[in-house]
Here is the input.
Amino acid sequence: MKKKTIVIGLLVLFMLTFAGCNPNATEPRNDQGDNGEITADPNTNTGSDNGNKIELEYTEEGVIKPEIAEKVIKDTATKVMTTIKEKDFAALAGFVHPEKGVRFTPYTYVNVENDLVFKREELKGFFNDQKKYMWGYYDGTGDEITLTPTEYYAKFIYTADFLNAEQVGYNEVLSYGNMLENQFEVYPQAIVAEYYFSGFNPDYAGMDWQSLRLVFQEHNEAWYLVGIIHNQWTI
Here is the structure.
């Protein structure tokens, strides 16, 4: 009886050891953040077409061609815009560049000195942060843009239903104001998805146009959000 018990024990030990060494054994997937929120798996942002990596093609100006940019980033950009619309910045954090974070630009021109950058962890508490930050300067008056993150979101991020925008462009500038366009200089080899409305009130003859641009850059063969640029008519 004692020998039989030893043999059974050895068999159980052998089976457990084999399972632990099996390269095909399935490990539990952890899709949750620190507070249990579902976060994005960056490995899904690889810009592939049915598992095949898309070959990047560039214009003479060194910008990824629009038709290629759309194939690479359309699905990811839609997911990102959905998290923005739903104010789910815990999920948005999973799409943000792990090293650079995401820069918020209130108007077209990207100001690397004044525009605020939030890291992934900071984004998770975005709407709970009651601190007033200086985000830049108001067009026309030059006054400081001093707002809480929630106030900034309402005034300079989701100011229209951009998820259902009138037009979406990929590495195409759909909206033009009086400010300089420098997004591709600040973000070289980037893909910019622009969600654009040509206007809302016919009385304004299109001067109330708005857009929101999502800027992505590649890192370790995956595409991450590095910038959110709000755009509207400026004086």
In short: Strands lie at 48-49, 52-53, 102-105, 116-118, 133-137, 144-147, 167-170, 191-197, 210-219, 222-232.
